[in-house]
Amino acid sequence: MQSRTARPTAPDSPGAHPHQDAAGLGVELATVVAGARRRAVRDGDRQVDTAHLLHSLLEQDPEVRSVVGGPPQLARLLGYLVQRSIGYGLRWQGSVEDSGAIAVVPRPATGDAGDWSPAAADALHQARERARRRGGHAADAPDLFAALVADPDSRAVEVLERAGIDARELSDRISVLIAERSAALIAERSAERSAAWSRAGPSGEFGVAGSGGGGVAGCGEFVEGAAL
User: Which of 67, 79, 61 is nearest to 163 (CA)?
Assistant: First the structure.
């Protein structure tokens, strides 16, 4: 598995989105979110929805693509996403994605001011919550993907099902991916701590072997004096 541990949010770095959308997101996921927003604006869609997020995830994250399946599944899925402006996607126009609740959108998205659909906003919130429960790290692409497929009424799940991909099976595979990434992150941090300990040496900050009667001997005298 490719090692890609979550990195902290860096709104000012290249590829990261400067909008508040990027809060709590890793650099890669902030780029995915910015890509989804640009796609919605470019296509003239009134809101950024879960299908936009799914499309951007597939375009920009190789681990998400690997979880979805092989080239045939990916080609079919991307084909549906690209053609959202015709066929099944026509009924999405002029409506709000809210887990099946249809309502008229009050105004179109313009530039970075475009709104998130309620379902997409909730998916981003759930991705941040997943990362927080994992130890306060920035959310990454698998976190968002897991949140997308967890909502059976989202447009992202609808497109997956139309492409013949079972969202429930995807959820299981994503859980495995997240567990592997977490284990890799723990191992990486453990190795960093071990390396730092080795660089400090046995006589570093703990003063195990100091000169001039310090170190262990000095500690022993202190303890004996305290005992008296």
Answer: 79
